[in-house]
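ugh ok fine here u go
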Amino acid sequence: MSGGGPGGSEEAARARRRRFAEEARAERPDLVLLCLLIAAEADPALDEAGMDAVEIELDALAGQLPFAPEGGPTAWARNVGELLGRRLGFGGVPADYRRLGSSLLHEVVRRRRGLPILLSVVWTEVARRAGAPVYGVALPGRYVVGFGDPRGAHVLADPFAGGRLLTEADATELVAGAGVALEAPMLLPADPLETVARILNNIRAWAQARPEHGPVGLWAVELALLLPSHPARLRHDRAQALVNCGRFLEGAAELEEYARVVEAVDAATAETVRGRAAEVRALLN
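structure:
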């Protein structure tokens, strides 16, 4: 697996970016496809056949689940946890946060290890294919999975802990670790594009902690910019990622463009950003 930029030819990379942007704007974005296109940015070996293999594996796992188990949401949660968590060993440990592969879907399916959000993608996609009423839940600090009716009878499971069922007290404790209080809207189904943005944020955080992997942070922010809704601040983040990669001229130009965008609402910030652009241009001398 590469820790650098997009794999393959420039033409293939551009085609992959176009496909990502188109899928992100689809009426019903395919979360698995978007995750695999993210993974393909990091891994040059992940071609169309490799993506198909992940889809086939998810289908095969779903085929091992019982159809319409008695016991409602709890039965579904227990059956999925029994298969993926206990029998197959999908789960996570703190060390997984130090691996880029923990944020790449094909690697998570292969290794059966990953971050909570990617493990939750596996959980929801396998369960959905088997007919379960399932959805992702983007709790602050820990992405988990819900089974049942999010506004009625439901149960939460934590794939990072092998599918452990969560009580309301457990969920409250999880979000408290992120410094917030549990509120009902947090338990509603996560939007696929919000999930993708959170995955890309995780990858950017991983790269920021490792300056030698600047290109990873760059492609992660560039994919985030392809999402139909994103904060203007991402332009500034892209500029900084370009500078981190030694692409000073491009980084300065991006800073100047960001300053132009924010000037109407925050002239002081725009002036500060222009000063930073000048500093970056000076690095070329």
